[in-house]
Amino acid sequence: MGTAGARFVVSKQLRSSAGTWCFFQGKHILIDPGPGTLKSCFLDFPVLNPEDLDAVILTHRHLDHSTDVNVIIEAMTQGTFNKRGYLFAPSDALEGFEPVVFQHVRQAVENLQLLKEKGSYSIDNLYFETPFRHNHSAETYGLKFILDQTCISFVVDTLFSDDLIKHYSGTDLLVMNVMLVEPLSCKEIKHLDLESATKLIDGIQPRMAVMTHFGLSMLEHEPELLARELSDKTGVKVVAAADGLTIELKKDLFS
Ligand SMILES: [Zn+2]
Ligand SMILES: [Zn+2]
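Above: inputs. Below: predicted complex with zinc ion.
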């Protein structure tokens, strides 16, 4: 639903900071409900009803990924009165100083699981893995969904390393949080840039790659143009996500 990455893009709402809604094998999953996610569900047509959700996944606790998690779970569980659904989150989103999911909200979730390195999880018949801990300023895991004949990976916030290629190999649809055009000198900002996105695509060779989670520099350089350049360079279909972009696996990935 949203494509905002850096805090200024989020705080100025230059792009929506809503999360990603997936419908895989009959399951509705919401990944990283950032600010405005609940509102965005009802702006979509047809409406995405949070009561239909089977699971909410937080890849990490940063505000652009977690602000709406409590209201979304409240909606998923019909005001916390109907205990149901899954919540997956790293331990530092749930424990210690300032957990981002309130206790009374967690209690409405039927199945709460901690994300861990080399984790494998199931939402009934739907499987996903968290191959390794990303190099980011909070405990962060990317997601690798193993569908019947398709592998879909979300390489969320992280600094680049060759390990990413190793762990996300075999991916058909590669969704990458590419916040930067150029790497920053500030060591605290641990995000992918265009060069690292190129290395990921070259190394993984997916059928299709999607860039999202844009910072200011990406927006200034027009993500659609950058995606076209990346397609030409790598020979892989690369798309720059726009707010509300829908990808249909059959149509967009296999046609
Ligand atoms: Zn982020
Ligand atoms: Zn982050």
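The pocket of zinc ion (ligand 1) is lined by residues 5, 62, 64-65, 157, 213 (CB under 6 Å).
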